[in-house]
Amino acid sequence: MDGVDEIVREFLIESYENLDQLDQDLIALEGNPTSRDLLSSIFRTIHTIKGTSGFLAFAKLEAVTHVGESLLVELRDGRRHMDQRTTDVLLAMVDTVRLILTSIEQQGSEDAVATDDVVARIQRTLDNVPEPDDAPAAAPVAEPAAVETEPAPAAPANKKVRAKTTDTSPTEEAAVVAAPKKIVPRRRAAAATPGETAPSVTAPVEPTAVEPTAVETTAVEPDVAPAAPVAPAPPAATQPAPTATPASAPAAPAAAEQSQAVRSSSDSSIRVDVDLLDELMRQVGELVLVRNQIAQLAGPDANPDLTRSSQRLSLIATELQEGVMKTRMQPIDHIWNKMPRIVRDLASGFKKQVELEMIGGDTELDRSLLESVKDPLTHLVRNAVDHGIEMPDVREAAGKTPAGTLTLRAYHAGGQVIVEVRDNGKGMDPDVIAAKALERGLRTSEQLDAMSTAEILNMVFLPGFSTAAVVTNVSGRGVGMDVVRSNIESIGGQVEVESEKGSGTVWRLRIPLTLAIMPALTVASGQEIYAIPQVNLLELVALDTTRTAEAIELINSAEVYRLRGDLLPLVRLTDVLGTTSDRDGSMVIAVLRADNQRFGLVVDRVLNNEEIVVKPLASQLKGTGTYAGATLMGDGRVALILDVQAIARRSLVGEIGDVAADAARAQAVQEVDGEDLLVVGIGDGRRAAIPLEAVTRLEQISTDRIEILGNREVLQYRGAILPVMRLPEALGAMGNHAATELPMVVFSRGNHNVAMVVGEILEIANDRGAERRPSDAYGSTGLVVLGGRVTEVVDLHTLLQSADPDYFEEDFDSESFLASFDAGMVHA
Fold first, then answer.
1. How would you list the strands of the sheet with 517-525, edge to edge?
2. Do domains 274-330 and 676-827 have the same CATH topology?
3. How far is 771 from 767, CA to CA, in rounded Å?
4. pLDDT value, residue 167
5. How far is 751 from 642, CA to CA, in rounded Å?
């Protein structure tokens, strides 16, 4: 858009936003043709584009919108009823307008776009002239290239829309290609708690050029409060625009109120250049580096004023980082709002019935990652409609409803955004996939016999792999699923697939919240420092010299560690890097997960758990396949970020790969059947179990580091002030008050941190198959038998809230907490 006049640039940005909303409003109007709000909104949008295009001398754009406006006038005045043909030509008009805008943006003129066909088609509809048999299909949806725009107003996540096709008249049958009987887009808010191939996804996605079917849309009242909009409210939410009839005097104040409301909504938001946001994010990253450096200087022996200033800096930097991150976040609904149209057109072309359900559209993701996810997600949706959902007669023969269900779901889990594409279609047959792999020479019979179902399903990600019997213009050429995975992994994400023959398929994308700053575990190998992304880290295991000799086993030539009864394949970081270790026999195992497999990465030492700023790799290191980036540590040293997935694929081969596959299967059973628990001693021979997923870190601290502030204990820890609670006393046990070293469990949630002192750290156990009995004792949710011993399950919600009443709140007032800390210091 460099050569485009500033006025034209603003016109393009506004028009693109309006067209995205227009697609949704037309689909909704077809199902609710009496809605004056929807019709007024559509009319105003087209009228605005027409008026501005005339002012800017875009004759073709003005002609297309003018004839479209004439059709809308007939609808508004009641001289025409909304039917399938009207919807089709209006959608074709929207697509043509989008093509014209793209041409203006990229070439500076509208001359390259042919508009005669769509104008004639709308005119025939106005004149009630039947369409000829060879009527042109609806123009494909054009994706604007290289234009940065603000997202269209996001639909509330709890909005539900039900659409179904209407019967066509005999004159319309020739223009309709195998109309599906029903397509049901639905949206609802995300739950409080989470869980064949096509052309390359790198190209812009366009729906199949088929004649869309009519859709009847029924708006459903929201069942929960709508999500806050990220942009001015859509026109449909305002009062209906006045008709051509002069308004009466009492209506004037209402019109004035409406105008004022629109102005206020518009004034509440501004457009910000994306480059400016990127620069702000870069500067915040530098601030995080400075914070880490000062935190190292402000250690336990540093000047108290420096320590307190460092703590303030840490809290302020964290809040600033979160604030800047919010400016870059956009709801995933921004890319979902095109899905109902895509599914509608594809279902029409394939003569299928599809119900589309979208859950969690208000889940937010970094804008740069959102753009990277759009094409892979669209590819998976097209594949699901093409290959996943069966024909209506096939579904009925299998005892299913004629209409298949396609569900898009997004939610936050484990510091990532999980996006699921789920269908209840035919699923994938592992036997068919294995036969195709054998036929193409990708695997031998012996290899296939040793592979698990999950491993066989993962072969669909191999380049050129496809089981489609028929190649369509949408999919079946074996190009795409490998690109989907490579695109997602290029932004630090993962792709997983689960499928059951006859029941359906789930594609699961795991996306990091941002690529700029990430939490990581820093480790040492020899004299060098490396960072492991926490999204890949499951747990840490420390073994002294004696335990190392007993615990490490060999299967042929592969080292394994028996972790809670399951074999864990080991990969030594020194072997990956070609270096030597300076350890004397003890070891630390970082239990990692990549591509649905667990393995242990043996390192020399664990250093710290901190947020790091990701820097790009030098060209000399990019080709090694070992590193995902670099970062600068607080002491000025450079640490390389390990690419866990690349290390896993390169190291988990042969015998160790077989062990990894067995471990993955065992872990899958464990995850379904039980929960991992951290077992601790609390004195008097009593044991307690803490859900492992809630634990952030285990520490051993000196008792003299605990300070008394008023009637509570606190601890200065990693630049933060942690309230301390003692688990033995909370559960009524006798703790060891004479100990000089205390085991401590650290819990973190946002800016909240709590330190829980325990008697001793015993083990990590799984309650698979164990029966829990309820308990009404304070601080306990029940009793469970672990390792032959009765163990109390800790009620974390009650105990952590007693230590920090705001622990489970969304917002945290760091200034008030620091004020109370300062008051306590003065009091002390």
1. 605-613, 517-525, 528-533, 638-642, 627-632
2. no
3. 8
4. 39
5. 27
- The residue type of 634 is G
Q: In whole angstroms, how far apart are CA 273 and each of 4, 147, 819?
A: 16, 12, 37
Q: Considering only CA atoms, which of 182, 167, 159, 63 is closest in space to residue 113? A: 63
Which alpha helices (H) appear in 542-629, and where do they start and end? 545-551, 573-577, 619-622
**Per the CATH hierarchy, to which homologous superfamily does domain 517-672 belong?**
CheA-289, Domain 4 (2.40.50.180)
**Letter for the amino acid at 454?**
A
- Please state whether 562 falls in left (phi above 0), alpha (psi between -120 and 50) or beta: beta
Give the domain ranges of the chain: 1-136, 274-330, 517-672, 676-827
- Cα separation, 532 vs 591, in Å, equals 11
Angle at 497 between CA 485 and CA 403, to 5 degrees: 115
**Cβ(766)–Cβ(676) below 8 Å:** yes
For residue 402, the SS3 value is coil
User: How many Å is the Cα radius of gyration of the chain?
Assistant: 30
CA 549 to chain CA centroid, nearest Å = 43
**First-to-last C-alpha distance (Å) of the chain:** 63
**Number of Cβ atoms within 10 Å of the Cβ of 769:** 8
Q: What is the DSSP string of 448-483?
A: HHH--HHHHHGGGGSTT----SS--SSS-SS-SHHH
Q: Could you report the per-residue pLDDT of 648-703, keeping only the tens digit for each?
A: 878 776 555 555 555 555 554 444 456 788 899 988 888 999 988 888 888 888 88
Q: Report pLDDT digits (tens) over 422-454.
A: 999 999 988 888 888 888 888 888 888 877 788
Under a CB-based contact definition with an 8 Å cutoff, are residues 433 and 443 in contact? no
How many other CB atoms sit within 10 Å of the CB of residue 399? 7
Name the β-bridge partners of 519.
Answer: 611
Distance between CA atoms of residues 641 and 612, nearest Å: 10
Query: Alpha helix (H) ranges present in 268-351?
Result: 274-297, 304-328, 333-336, 339-350
User: Rounded to whole angstroms, how far apart are CA atoms 105 and 97?
Assistant: 12
Q: What is the 3-state secondary structure (H, E, C) of 759-778?
A: CEEEEEEECCCCCCEECCCC
Question: Nearest-CA neighbor of 821 among 744, 705, 712?
Answer: 712
User: 274-330: what CATH class?
Assistant: mainly alpha
Mean pLDDT of all residues belonging to the chain: 74
Q: What are the CA-CA distances from residue 519 to residues 173, 415, 532, 537, 599 (Å)?
A: 58, 9, 9, 11, 20
| Angle of CA points 179, 353, 461, to nearest 5° | 120
Report the DSSP beta bridge partners of residue 763: 679
Strands (E), 266-425: 329-331, 354-359, 364-366, 404-413, 416-423
> Which amino acid, 537?
L
pLDDT of residue 423: 93
Write the CATH number of the domain with boundaries 1-136. Answer: 1.20.120.160
Distance CA 725, CA 807 (A): 13
Mean pLDDT of 77-101: 88
Residue 262 token pair = 């629109």
Would strands 597-603 and 780-786 be described as parallel, antiparallel, or unpaired? unpaired
User: What are the CA-CA distances from residue 220 to residues 24, 162, 187, 749 (Å)?
Assistant: 15, 8, 10, 36
Residue 133: DSSP 8-state: T
- Decide: residue 420, CB within 10 A, 0-12 exposed, 13-18 middle, 19+ buried: buried
Select 676-827's CATH number: 2.40.50.180, 2.60.40.10, 3.90.950.10, 3.30.360.10. Answer: 2.40.50.180
Quote the tokens at residue 789. Answer: 């011993």
Query: Does position 211 have pLDDT exceeding 80, yes or no?
Result: no
